[in-house]
Amino acid sequence: MAGGKYILTLSCEDKSGIVAAVSGFLAENGGFIVESAQFGDPSTKRFFMRVEFESKDNLKDKFASIAEQFNMDWDIFDESIRPRVLIAVSKAGHCLNNLLYRHESGNLKVDIVGVISNHQDLEGMAKRHGVNFQHLPVTPETKPEQEKQILDIVEKENIDVVVLARYMQILSPDLCKKLKGKAINIHHSFLPGFKGADPYRQAYDRGVKIIGATAHYVTKELDEGPIIEQEVIRVDHTDASEDLKSLGQDIESRVLARALRNHIEHRIILNEGKTVVFK
Fold this sequence. Notes:
By secondary structure, the protein is an alpha/beta fold. Helices cover 32% and strands 30% of the residues. The strands form three sheets. Strands 7-6-5-8-9-10-11 form a seven-stranded mixed sheet. A four-stranded antiparallel sheet has the order 2-3-1-4, with helices on one face. A two-stranded antiparallel sheet has the order 12-13.
């Protein structure tokens, strides 16, 4: 059918009639369902739903009455609007390089507005891909000022999501609060184990047999935010710590890219301290 493509996401108390109300509403208002997924969580008693549909308009105003009836947390997104992304990095460039390549090849349908960093090491990489780079140095004394600069960029550029692509600075509780649900971090190990700057050395010293990476939303609790995506690979006693690091960097890049794609496609709905991720 002629018209635009939209995505409806919602969560509410789990009760009968929700799917019927949503599908009936779309049918009555000329909406054509392309894809639909739902999940009822018995542990939180919450219901979650994601619907892709085609329509002559996004039906947002009209859907408000249905949402009110079920006391929903909800939104409708226009698929034609590309999310605006800000990437934060430090010195390691593997995750940034992967995201820039996916964006340049058309695999990641976002607008990368810029790259910010507390170091200048990756400026050349960003500029080679035609992306603006901004150096925001930080010390313990200047951290509040530097974080204000970050927030100013987020607000001025209408950023939809901030990606911490191995940005090795701990965000303040205030910044975490202001970026709630719109900042994604990649942690280079399982969570909550092996925290800190050198987890692969920690993993090697413990003789682990599996390594992995975790992408999660940023919260004030360090590396404890709702998990979006994870991946693992088996290792053994013949792998040195540098081998673990190399293998881990490949995993980190893939996991972060998948997490970002799920976010921009509105496949993630927060469920208290965890997430529902529709595939």
